[in-house]
Amino acid sequence: MRTVILRSSDGADHIVSSEAASLSRTVQSLLEELEAKEGEESPLIVPLPNVCDCTLRKVLQYCIQHTEPGTNLTGRIHVSETRRRDLEVWDRNYMLVSTDELYHLVMAAHYLNVPGLLELCCEGIANLIRGKSPQHVRQHFGLVNNFEKAEEEDIRRTNLWALVDEKELAKK
Amino acid sequence: MTPQAGFPSLPLETCLVIFAKLDVNSLINMAATCRGMRVVAKENSLWKQIAAAKWGREALALCEKNVASNQITWFEFCKHRLCLLRSPRSPLNLVQEVYIDPWQHIVSCLLCSRTSGSERVRCTISFFLYHCQDASYILLADDEELQSLIEPLGLQETRIRAVKQMTVAFFEKDWKDPSEFYGCGKFTSDSWRIFCRGERSSKGVEDATLLRYLRWRNTGSFVDPNPRQLRSSKGAGTKCNGVAKKVSERSGRKHGRGQTEPGNSRVLRSHTKNIVMAPPH
């Protein structure tokens, strides 16, 4: 099996199988270009200036796990029910990260274009949002309330209709 | 170099993927956090998806026509036709309390008017709404099939006609109040305002059961000047419940059929209007 070297923004090299690296469509197309230019034999080094070392390591964990025997190049899984369930459990554990890490991960998944990982991260973020009040979401994600008076009034009316903030409004 | 962490730095398409996974309540909450998120959370495609999932394909075609002709956003369209309230459930256990989704709510009002209010009626309505998963089902279904589902209620032809016409108008028309729909009267409109819009004022409400609900909502008890209507809320034994049911059935029969008021024959008027159920013991 061919191996490639992925170089993170801070210059750390990661050696992975080309199979795992190709889960990222961005890397896949870069590899194809490189191969065409430099021939089959030379070592393939892919610089990834938008991904830092620790995030790349995390992404590669995903790629390696999801290219274990039984999956083909496109990432489509032709495996038994057991394997599928194992992967689901693995994915759930994989998502046990801090909000900050999740951000870096989702940005990396977007840039590297790893559809499965992107989907997984989006689900993770959606899970963080569900059931939180606007105030709570702001705190959690570091958002700043930058509404103007008129907008605030509009929101208050909508949310009275939705009654999400009833307690908060009552306090004011 | 680490990319700046934070929601606003996420690419729009990724935000949309995340938001598409959210339920309506969370989406509304997101829209209230900050400006950037508000713009994304009101995105047309998101709300169109919500409409499609909620009402089905046939209804979506009507919605699309409405949105295009009235030039409103999908957010506005859905906002008017959804209910996110979490009204507390009262010991009265009315059918309308269960179905707070506006479309289901109006259907349940159409079905429970002019009935005895017995448990059978309640079950029939629940079954009907369960069987017709969404509005599209009603739009496609045969009249006969729907009529057979609600046979125990009586007046099935009129009721199904009203339900069908209401469903079309619900999506197609730019309505303000349910009383604009065929077959819907003041009772439906009041009920909609109270349960789907959270109105607490009893001003102008005529229906006795709605008034009782409002009294409970506002004061927490059923203390009633008229002792005949007083049904104790908690810890009521079977004996008491039996009496309560009989009273409601009797009054249903008294007012029920054959008393159409002139000028109002097209409105399914409700007299007992309510499905009063004994609280579970």
Q: Which helices and strands, and how do they pair?
A:
The complex is a heterodimer of chains A (172) and B (281).
Chain A: E1 3-7, E2 13-17, H1 18-21, H2 25-38, E3 45-47, H3 53-65, H4 81-94, H5 99-112, H6 115-129, H7 134-141, H8 149-162, H9 166-171
Helix pairs in contact in A: 3-5, 5-6
Chain B: H1 12-20, H2 24-31, H3 35-41, H4 44-70, H5 74-81, H6 95-98, H7 102-112, H8 119-131, H9 135-140, H10 143-149, H11 156-172, H12 186-196, H13 208-219, H14 238-255
Q: How does this model look, in words?
A:
The complex is a heterodimer of chains A (172) and B (281). Chain A has 172 residues and is mainly α. Chain A has 9 helices and 3 strands, in the order ββααβααααααα. Chain A has a 3-stranded mixed β-sheet. The longest helix of chain A is centred in the last third of the chain and has 15 residues, at 115-129. Chain A is elongated and about 65 Å long. Residues 1-5 and 232-281 of chain B have low confidence and may be disordered. With 281 residues, chain B is mainly alpha-helical. In chain B, α7 (102-112) runs antiparallel to α11 and α10 (143-149) packs across α11 (156-172). Chains A and B meet through α5, α6, α7 and α8 of A and α1, α2 and α3 of B.
